[in-house]
Design goal:
It is an enzyme of class 2 (transferase). Residues 1-88 form the Chorismate mutase domain. This is 3-deoxy-7-phosphoheptulonate synthase. Keywords: Transferase. This protein has 2 domains: 3-90, Chorismate mutase (Chorismate Mutase Domain, subunit A), CATH 1.20.59.10; 105-355, Aldolase class I (TIM Barrel, Alpha-Beta Barrel), CATH 3.20.20.70. The longest helix has 37 residues, at 3-39. The strands form 2 sheets. Strands 3-10-9-8-7-6-5-4 form an 8-stranded parallel β-sheet. Strands 1-2 form a two-stranded antiparallel ribbon. The protein contains 12 helices and 10 strands. It is an alpha/beta fold. It binds phosphoenolpyruvate (PEP) and manganese (II) ion (MN). Manganese (II) ion binds at residues 125, 295, 321, 331-332. Residues 125, 151, 187, 207-209, 230, 260, 292, 295 line the site of phosphoenolpyruvate.
């Protein structure tokens, strides 16, 4: 063996010895972490780190300079603190850490959200009349759709705007379920309404304006129907996830997340669709994620490419508004597709959907 090879062999032995010591150090650090948790003291203790660094510098005989030793040990301390923090971390029920496999929200009519297929939730902004909803429902059934949306309780910016038909609206929606077998998706704005609405609705929607209405979220958690939770107008992804956790921690794990755009300085669209929220939610939680292309863009001319983008980044489906005569719609008149526009939108997005099967 040459001198160089001998030295290299020795270096490898030292590497393994260091690794062994690091492993032992990590195990001891974890035990210290448990003691700290029991005692309720902070995991990170800068004073203690400083003392240990000073001891090491005192003992340092070279050849490494004091600063190099400091740096190396600081990295080791950091890794140990992270180990201690990781064992203290409480995982959310909605997190993938807690449940690695996807949640699939299934319905008696065969629809499944969050599984292999991509799904669509189309329908008018508001329920206005039997005829209006029926025109859309008939079209959806003919297209093989499994859901229809429509608001009966409308959270409007102005108190003078149409507030929805209330229970009458839900009754109209229920007729569509009976006639066409469509699952009914409709918004609830009052915690006291879940019980009444339960006889009409298959998916309770919680709208953007109520994403942090914690009493509503708690009641949604007590329901045994799926909840479609929309992201708040100015909610961070973390806040959105915590809102879902409110529902889950109150007993309901059937949650569908819906990114619907957030408020930014940009005026070219109604809201700014946070497309990156989709893969972030898919990675961080086990819940299905939809993208609402109507309320995010507010623009019919870009809904199709945006909907395609949503599917491309991993959304489990798309929501969009369709009205037989948008010009006279009582809400969101400017952005609902008419049936003809919907025909071409649907043909294209359904083609895109098949790319992912
Ligand atoms: C809706 O979907 O009917 C609605 C009001 O949307 P958002 O809560 O996202 O504004
Ligand atoms: Mn709307």
């Amino acid at each position: 063996m040459t001198e160089l090879n001998q030295l290299r062999t020795r270096i490898e032995e030292i590497n393994f010895a260091i690794l062994e010591l690091l492993t032992e150090r990590g195990e001891v650090a974890k035990k210290i972490g448990q003691e700290k948790i029991k005692a309720g003291t902070d995991i990170y203790d800068p004073q203690r780190e400083k003392e240990m660094l000073n001891q090491l510098i005192e003992q340092n005989k070279g050849p490494y300079d004091d600063n190099v030793i400091k740096q190396l040990f600081k990295e080791i301390f950091k890794a140990s603190t992270e180990l201690q923090q990781a064992q203290n971390e409480k995982h959310l029920l909605v997190s993938r850490k807690m449940k690695p496999e996807d949640t699939i929200v299934s319905f008696p009519n065969g629809a499944a959200v969050g599984g292999q297929d991509k799904i669509f939730v189309f329908g008018p902004c508001s329920v206005e009349s039997y005829e209006q909803v029926d025109a859309v429902a008939r079209d959806l059934a003919a297209k093989g759709q499994k859901f229809i949306r429509g608001g009966a309780f409308k959270p409007r910016t102005s108190p003078y705007d149409f507030q929805g038909l209330g229970e009458e609206g839900l009754k109209i929606l229920k007729e569509m379920n009976k006639k066409y077998g469509l699952n009914i998706v409709s918004e609830i704005v009052n915690p006291a309404h879940f019980e009444m609405a339960d006889q009409y609705v298959d998916v309770f929607q919680i709208g953007a304006r109520n994403m942090q209405n914690f009493e509503l979220l708690k009641e949604a958690g007590k329901s045994n129907k799926p909840i479609l939770l929309k992201r708040g107008l100015a909610a961070t992804i973390e806040e959105f996830i915590y809102a879902a956790e409110y529902i889950h921690s109150n007993g309901n794990s059937q949650i569908i997340m819906c990114e619907r755009g957030i408020r930014t300085y940009e005026k070219a669209t109604r809201n700014t669709l946070d497309i990156s929220a989709v893969p972030i939610l898919k990675q961080g939680t086990h819940l299905p994620v939809l993208v609402d292309v109507t309320h995010s863009t507010g623009r019919k001319d870009i809904m199709l490419p945006v909907a395609k983008a949503a599917l491309a980044v991993g959304a489990d489906g798309v929501m969009a508004e369709v009205h037989p005569d948008p010009a006279v719609a009582l809400s969101d008149a400017g952005q609902q597709m008419d049936l003809q526009e919907f025909d071409s939108f649907f043909a294209e997005i359904d083609k895109a959907r098949q790319l992912y099967l």
